Amino acid sequence: MEIKDNGFIFSDDSNLVDVKAVHHYLSTQSYWAKEIPLQIVQKSITNSLCFGVYKDGKQVGFARWVTDRTTFAYLCDVYIEENFRGFGLSKKLMSLMMFHPDLQGLRTYCLATLDAHGLYSQFGFKAVETPEKLMEIRIPDIYLNGKGQL
């Protein structure tokens, strides 16, 4: 699926993803994946349903779903490069992803965010109704100091 809008290309073709650009953003600019190794980013892209935003052949945005494409999808690694924010690209990307054929009729869509609740609530996301049911194993800063290698 590919959509062109005002000189931007939105695509679900993982072959278009600039892995080095995504790695650079995640490892240096994100709050959730500081220092993530390149090989981890590559493997995550290979094993996910990925979406990119491109301008003049450059990757300017990215997002991926970890999903079985049947019952569950977890949205992660969503970003738009800072120079391209304010153009509605996040909303356009979310629309493309939420209406993607492989993500229709799932029982659960989830994500975690520190600061983008306003964006995601426009697409139906809300705080977890029964957080007491959720459990996790969290290893903070796993990529710092060489931990979390393949």
UniProtKB/TrEMBL annotation:
Cited InterPro entries: Acetyltransferase_Butenolide, Acyl_CoA_acyltransferase, GNAT_dom
Gene Ontology molecular functions: acyltransferase activity, transferring groups other than amino-acyl groups
Domain N-acetyltransferase: 1-140
Keywords: Transferase
UniProt-listed Pfam families: Acetyltransf_1
Protein known as: GNAT family N-acetyltransferase
